[in-house]
Amino acid sequence: MNLDATIRRRLAVALEEADLVGVAFDAAAGTATVTLLVPVLADEARGIRDLHFLLHPVARVAASLRVRGARPTTLRPLGLSDVPSVVSGFGGMPVRGSGFFDPVAGEHSRSVGSLDWRSGRGAGRHSLALSHDDAHRHFDLRLWFDDFEVLDARGLRVPVVSIVAEGARARRTLRQESRPCV
Questions:
Q1: How many structural domains is the chain composed of?
Q2: Are strands 19-26 and 137-151 parallel, antiparallel or unpaired?
Q3: What pLDDT does 14 receive?
């Protein structure tokens, strides 16, 4: 997959309001699946599209989980097997940020801390960075991979061009709805 600047920017638009509902790893196969519920406009009706981003091969996974409390913020240790339960523990909250794919250097800089797992596979030419935040916790997740494909809830491949086109259409519609009537 060619993730040039235009595709990255358009994917970011499409995923702006997405809810992160799951992450799964297959360390033996060197894959990760990131499940997002993405708002869509289908035939002028609003809906949600269940998309599974299958990343392969995954070269590295870095994460940090910070817990806020009466004492200073605490960094919690994580193993690769802990990440799915941390993600589900946020209850499908929207992802934060805007530069999800191949964010510029310095963004998501706090990703390393709780977990830094390396598979020894692939070059990690691309990355996907996601964050969750609630009143008590902050979670950053970054996955480095070489290629990806997107599957729908039935396991059928979804062309990236259709995701970015739907994201652009939704943004145009929302802009039109937010304009004041004259």
A1: 1
A2: unpaired
A3: 86
Tokens matching residue 109 = 């800089």
The C-alpha torsion from 30 through 77 and 23 to 118, rounded to 10°, is -20
- Domain limits at 147? 5-178
Show Cβ contacts of residue 69 under 8 Å, excluding neighbours closer than 6 positions: 136
pLDDT reported for residue 174: 57
Closest residue by Cα to residue 23 from 5, 39, 35: 35
Residue holding tokens 């935040």? 133
| Residues 21, 36 contacting (CB under 8 angstroms) | yes
Residue 16 has pLDDT above 70, yes or no: yes
pLDDT, mean over the chain: 85
Q: pTM value?
A: 0.86
